[in-house]
Amino acid sequence: MVQSPSFDHFPRAESIYRALLRIYPADYRREYAAPMAQLFRDLCRDTYCHHGRVGLARLWGRVLADTVITAVVEHIHTLEKGAYMMSKQHQFLILFLSGLPLGLGIILLLINPKFMLHLLTPNAAQPVGWLITAAAIGLAAAAYVIQRKILLSTPLDTSAGVMQSIPLRSRLYLVGTIAFLVFPAILLVLLGPAFITVLLSGVLR
Amino acid sequence: MDQITPDLDQILPLTPAVFHILLALADQERHGYGIMQEVATMTRNQIQMGPGTLYGTIKRMVAARFITESDERPDPDMDDERRRYYRLTDWGQQVLAAETQRLSTLVQVAQAKKALDVMGAS
User: Fold this and answer.
1) Main-chain phi, psi angles of A18, to 5 degrees
2) pLDDT value at position A18?
3) What is the pLDDT of residues A157-182, one digit of tens each?
4) Does the beta carbon of B79 lie under 8 angstroms from any beta carbon of chain A?
5) Residue A30, phi then psi, degrees to nearest 5
6) Nearest Cα residue in chain A from B54
7) Which chain A residues have any C-beta within 8 angstroms of a chain B C-beta?
8) ipTM of the predicted structure?
9) Contact B59 A63 (CB under 8 A)
10) Who among B52, B58, B60 is closest to A71 (CB)?
11) What is the dihedral of CA A165, A167, A169, A171, to 10 degrees?
12) Closest Cα partner for B55 from A132, A85, A82, A38?
């Protein structure tokens, strides 16, 4: 039997676990982060008493897997509730990011429609074009990350309500979110390199 | 607060986590860690819920009104007042009874089909 530790025996483990809890949705954290941290502290104390450091290592493995899986589940539940809402400012930002490649495409059509179609064909894949395409993909990925950050950082306060599921609204919201992500990404990849190449060709001519 | 009580048939079968938590709270109020320990004892350590699984399930059970947070402490002098205790609601007791009945019927069917004979022979 290992020596019984005090409550303050695992401050670092508890602080790491508290940091880990940040991957849960904000409303869930507000409600359950404190009892979960306390439960983790109790678990650490008892596991150390009965199984020592090896037991603690096993406990960490179990808790890490449990935390990651249940955090995903809670985010899905929160999305299903339609609890994530964007502020107007963020909506305009997303609309701007979505409209940018569309605007590029329209300008491109107005400048030189034949050249644009030529650039979109496979034989136009030159090294510069590939580099620009890679940059466009990077931008689209960055837009995705930013959008997720916006979505996850502005939840409604749902702590007062109980599971008021609004399936149609939440589904529409999910479809809208995906459209916001996929549509500009496709347009950026297709039209961004073409637009820049048209500009370059105009400069070099 | 009037809430429509869903039909038991729509709720059953329960997930193992929900059933074990209901069973852990059947005889007395418990806090989160108490529920976890009771489930481990009941199942001979076969089911060891993590904190995320436990509180995620508790959250949905509170929303479904199977359990509720208790205001009272079984022994306030001996316990940390920050701990949250949970207890079964009347609806939770009905759900637990219905699920237990369902499982009992299944066991009877299994016995009638001599499903346990293999264990007796070994």
Assistant:
1) -60, -40
2) 92
3) 333 222 333 445 555 555 555 665 66
4) no
5) -60, -40
6) A36
7) 24, 28, 31-32, 34-36, 38-40, 42-43, 62-63, 65-67, 69-71, 73-74, 162-163
8) 0.83
9) no
10) B52
11) 130
12) A38
> In A, which residues are within 8 Å of B21 by CB distance?
none
Q: Where are the domains of chain A?
A: 7-80, 88-204
**Alpha helices, H only, chain A:** 11-20, 26-80, 88-111, 113-120, 127-153, 167-204
**DSSP code string of A161-174:** S-----HHHHHHHH
Could you say which of B48, B56, B82 has the minimum Cβ distance to residue A38? B82
Write out pLDDT tens, residues A84-139.
555 555 556 666 666 666 666 667 667 776 666 666 555 555 555 556 666 666 66
> How would CATH label the architecture of B13-121?
Orthogonal Bundle (1.10)
| A183 contacts A98 by C-beta, under 8 angstroms | yes
Q: Give domain limits for chain B.
A: 13-121
pLDDT in tens, B36-85: 999 999 999 888 889 999 999 999 999 889 999 987 666 555 556 668 89
Asked if A31 and B59 come within 8 Å (Cβ–Cβ), the reply is yes
Q: Report the predicted TM-score, pTM, of the whole model to 2 decimal places.
A: 0.61
| Rounded (to 5) percent helix, strand, coil in chain B | 55, 10, 35
- Looking at residue B51, its pLDDT comes to 93
3-state secondary structure of A155: strand
Query: How far is it, in rounded angstroms, from Cα B106 to Cα B108?
Result: 5
Q: Token pair for residue A91?
A: 């909506």
Residue to test with chain B: of A18, A24, A38, most B Cβ within 10 A = A38
Phi, psi of B88 (to 5 degrees): -70, 145
